[in-house]
């Protein structure tokens, strides 16, 4: 095994663990489908930006499905393995395929994307995140856990969102990354949204006695998951690149 192969294996394993940890660290239960909101997308997207499609695909598929299996959401594990694998590969492929062509996008486009992200985040903060909620897994490896119960006012979420949106806009305007990258991540995120809707509609909801049409309720949650994941991944990946970590060249 060459040095490059060893590095690639270590990188993939590292991101599998990181996806797993990010996915179980914050789990907000969605009663209509039995699924949950999580931050795993952020790590998948970081892997896609820094290391390309293979690392992001393998880390996403394995790390996220292991999280489902170990925290009481096993019914989603088969779908998660496929959906997150495709999502990670698509994100990495889109970014690396079109990165050079996207470098001439003007800063104003980046600013507009940042404003749009901020607007979407505010909508999700008002309608889906504020108020009382349980955060964290209810079980890990069959061990029952008392999840944290938080009641976060909407104005706190809005402040958090404005900070995230301002940071993202700054990064895009300064062209520390191309404006294409967040767009590529959202396109990959749409695959995740559609994939889970189809699985919940045709498989998991019927198996658990829920109405198939209830799968519609999780569409905005999963869109928010993709948007937040991209909002975290883009600035953090940029910081990692400036710190000398991660690749920036095409295959």
UniProtKB/TrEMBL annotation:
Keywords noted in UniProt: Membrane, Transmembrane, Transmembrane helix
Transmembrane segments: 12-30, 42-67, 73-96, 108-129, 154-173, 180-199, 219-241
InterPro entries linked to this entry: ECF_substrate-spec-like
Pfam family, one: ECF-ribofla_trS
GO cellular component, one term: membrane
Domain of life: Archaea
Gene3D superfamilies: 1.10.1760.20
Name the record gives this protein: ECF transporter S component
